[in-house]
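Dear support,

We are seeing what looks like truncated structure output for some complexes. This example has two components. We would appreciate it if you could run it in full and send us the complete token output so we can diff it against ours.
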Amino acid sequence: MPLRNVISTTAIFLIAVLGVVAALLFDRVTLDSLWLSFLGGFHPFVLHLPIGIIAVIAVRACLPSRTGPDEWLWWLAALTSTTALATGYLLGAEGGYDPELLDNHLWAAVAFSSLCWVGLWSIRSAHRPAISNILLALTLGTMTAAGHYGGVMVHGDPLAAAPWNLDPDRYATLPPLAAEVNVYRDLVVPIMGAKCVSCHGPARQKGRLRLDNIASLQRGGHSGPVIIPGNVSLSELLNVIKLPIRSDDHMPPVDHPQVSAVELAALSFWIDQGAHESIAIALDSPPEPFAALLEPGYRLLPDPVAEKARLAAAAQATEIQRATRTKLDELLTHLPSDLTPLFYFPDHDSANLTFNAIGRSTLTAPEWTAISDPLLSSYEINFAGVAAPAQLLAELARSPHVTRLNLRDTPVTNAQFAAFATTPALEILNLYGTTVTSIPAIAAGSFPHLQKLYLGRTAVTESDLALLRETLPSTAVLGSPALVTPESATPQP
Amino acid sequence: MNLSDQLSIDQLTQHTRRHFLKDCVAGLGALWFSAQGSDLFGSNGELRDLSADPLRIRPAHFAPKAKRVIYLHMAGAPSQLDLFDYKPELFRLDGKDCPESFLEGQRFAFITGIPSLLAPRHRFQPAGKSGQMIAEILPHFRDVIDEVCLIKSMQTDQFNHAPAQLLLHTGNAQQGHASMGAWASYGLGTENQNLPGFMVLVSGGKNPSSGKAAWSSGYLPSVYQGVQCRSEGDPILYLDNPQGVARSDRRKILDTIDEINRRSYEEVGDPETLTRIAQYEMAYRMQIHASDALDMSKEPDYIHESYGTEPGKESFANNCLLARRLVERGVRFVQLYDWGWDHHGNGDNTIDVGLSKKCGEIDRPIAALLQDLKQRGLLDDTLVVWGGEFGRTPMRELRGGVMTDTYGRDHHKEAFTMWMAGAGVRGGHSIGRTDELGFFVEDNPIHVRDLQSTILYALGLDSQKLVFPYQGLDQKLTGVGTVPRVIHELFS
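Here is the complete output from our reference environment:
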């Protein structure tokens, strides 16, 4: 081997080693230059070059007959790996990574880069193929190690998200609390664990943000700190939770379990108090906004069994509603076309058939007959100002569907009123301005679901109203309130 | 068949499926793109089916809280600081210069230089069970405060009357856009086929600064335009038959026009023809029903007394009573405008005299309206909204810097107060908070677009789904920019 080659190879190797040593010495230097940060940004691109080149060398080594020497490939590998090392060093110096992983990544990369140079030297020195192959194997090994640490550092450990490593119930309920509650350990960690850590934790660090330990919480992520101790309104962590759910920046994402108001109150309290690990409160006198969180068995995540049952019940209700709607739609098709506008559904999916006689001061007897079937299936009926036949009112009083009935300004008798006491679903009954004169005796269990009863401008006396309010404690009974009169108050000058 | 026809048929028979596909590249691409468009660029709104009858009742997007809206607009913008937004700090700072940090980047309609702060000019007292601080110049309103939810953190973009009114009612400071009431009747139709879905009543001696554009139908079909009623003379102009034309003659004329229109529709198939037929028919029915709805003389005395109406005159009290009569008959959106709330401090137009006088005009009617709606069961599904187009400054306005002995405030878009009642609104509450001077919103800012979106929400309409295509864009009441917020905390 010519002496010239030996000297040049050794010189290059020395430069590489010196570069690495210099890099290690720089360890204590903080980098604040925009240029260094800019160059560091190229690391994700450059690092893939030596990987590809070494892969090509490995493939060529396996081929039975080589076409030409590998020297230029080793040259490229050595140069690109060193560039990747340098840019990676600059990127790592910016901070924001797990220090231990970063250290491992750095040393594996130093070894890899050095081995590339040694490989080059070995090829140039025309050693026996065995030595070159051993060097190639070592290079591959260190490359894998460096790649592994780097990948885990940036994208997280894929194994952490493996199905067999996940315990879905780990954060389902808050653990039992001692008399003195450590706000960080007992509340913040489980809340984060249930709502945030699946994306901002060991498995994944979206936005380079980890929320599973106090140090990363305080450090923040790619776009800066997420917690300003003592300042609730400037803490991004809380602001993204408070954003409207439709907002792009809202957290947690829309199809994930959301942070509830009490959980948000606990996080706010912790940040307001300075966001330390040592903040404690007494279990028996918790701050009011998140007292509910400290109730035994508070669920951070919904009970999967109950959740499934809830979804099934909701699906079944939708199904029933849809079937009812179809049936009612069919019923309405039998109406004469000039009567169809009197019936409608309040919204697209609703099965709450609504009847409104507004605009039709009178209906003929055949018309009443025509509408009686859909009326008996109606949810809301407005007869205001229109006198319905007595027979129909008696039938309506037995309808299981009538929920809101407006008989305002119609001639309703006391007996008819009494009949509505047994209407099973009735919630609102409006008898304003009717001819009702007295309150019939109301038995226990009358008006089972009645919420509002309007009796203004009737002949019902105040004492009867008082009696009614006593008998029906969960019903708002509205008489004729004294409307404002000029004397009831005089404006101040 | 001539030679030219023969040739073109021969040419067509030579066309294969390949020719079709080759020639249709752009067309098929566009077809695909229009099918994918909603996935790529967000979903389209749903168009309302306007064929047959444009006023026919249409289902809402989701379960509505309100069937109807009464919107009481105080044109000129009342001072929130002397009525609802109590700022005791202003007493301490009365007459002192407004801190410069507040004035940075602010523009005012009239204030120039560094203005001085002005303390509330009317006394406040806790009102109702909720104990909210309300000015004493609204004595009757104080009695119904527990029906009302105050929104103290309203904000707008405009500080001049006309553009601010247009922004509030049509979603755009320029003319030509559709107003809230027009959108509501476009979205839901009308419950009563004998009356328009959107009616407007004006008091205070003149129209609002923005004029009739505030109740325009804009780019929506003109059938949705607000119909202005007058409380003196003919309630609706040009509705009655001309002299010498009997109602039966009118019927014959309509039947003939109807016949011609139907024939034209069968030939051409333009749905606008059906709209026209529906319009003629409604006008005919309105001749009877509108006159009845707007005839206040049918009300008993105690009602007149409680509202404080003055039959035959144009007054806010009359309009409140008419509003109740209209919602009772299923009118979807009743819009009241009352002019005279622009209290700059010139002449009698002051916080002390002018504001007290205007409050005296609206106080009793509003309290009576809320109580009347409530006892009739109408407040359950009628949303009542009250407010101006913007607020007024915590600073005193001095025209041209000349010191006078009258007190006024300038236009202020950063913070003002509105209130809502009925339709499940949480009574006796307030939403949002302003800073110590009432200058900026400190908590829960609510833009007028949020208010529009909330009113639509109460009616069961999604502001993002209620659209009308115009000039290549799906127009929305709340504009096509940021998605406004629904004030969910307003409802219990």
